[in-house]
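Hi everyone, sorry if this is the wrong subforum. Our group has a chain we'd like a structural model of before ordering constructs, and none of us has done structure prediction before. Sequence below.
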Amino acid sequence: MTITDEFVRVTRAHPCVICGRPDWCLSDREESPAKAICAREPSPRRWGGAGWMHILRDDHTPRRPRVYTVENDPDFGDLARRYQEQVNERDARHFAYSLGLSYESLVLLGLGRSSNCWIFPMSGSRGICGIRTRFPDGSKRAIKGSKQGLFIPNDRDPGRTVVFTEGPTDCAALLDVSLDAIGRPSCHGGARVAQEIIRRDKPAEAIVFADRDDAGRQGAEQFLSHVELCVPRAKIIFPPEGIKDVRAWRQAGATREDILALIGEMAL
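Answer:
Right subforum, don't worry. Here is the predicted structure as tokens:
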């Protein structure tokens, strides 16, 4: 028996239930598949050269996530909750595994699921103000009408040191080692909300964990110029030479102690 005896190619009429694309991927049946082989979205089970195996709902009646219509003035808090209700834990754990992160850290950041992407809510001073999307190819966008905010963990326990990362997945990498982390929307933006958080929580120091590239450095320097006005100590730190960002450093084996040592060394 070959793979094409058990699986059929996806089509425009029946796209991949994992990545939403109409080509390359396979499923065991066109309607309500129980298994899918996605060529784009990783899982712990590699299936030869065809892609990654995804076992769908145990009752073999997977629920295809809906795409919600966004009004001119959307309630992003309600929208985020609806996307969170669509998360299948098995798929979310596969997604976390592909990023080298824990499922739990992504849940803390409000992970949700749309029809063909994962979502992360962004928070401003008055609650959730926008939604960031992440597609299987790694591209990132925002739902129409979103305002730039920060990626703030749901049960955040403020500490003496708050670490601002670039994006939600870098933030999740630090949550995995129990650090007080908040994600910036990108290498730019989020400074005003960060100032409000610092004034409220009164940490002893703020660390800006920047990506090791020119855009990361420039954005971190601009962000630092705002947050250092509100905190006794503020510094920029970078991952070790040759490593792009904190998530890549964690994937390379960095421990909580390694990260704390870097923070302590550069924050003195």
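For your construct planning: The first strand starts at residue 8 and ends at 9. Residues 160 and 204 are 5 Å apart (CA to CA).
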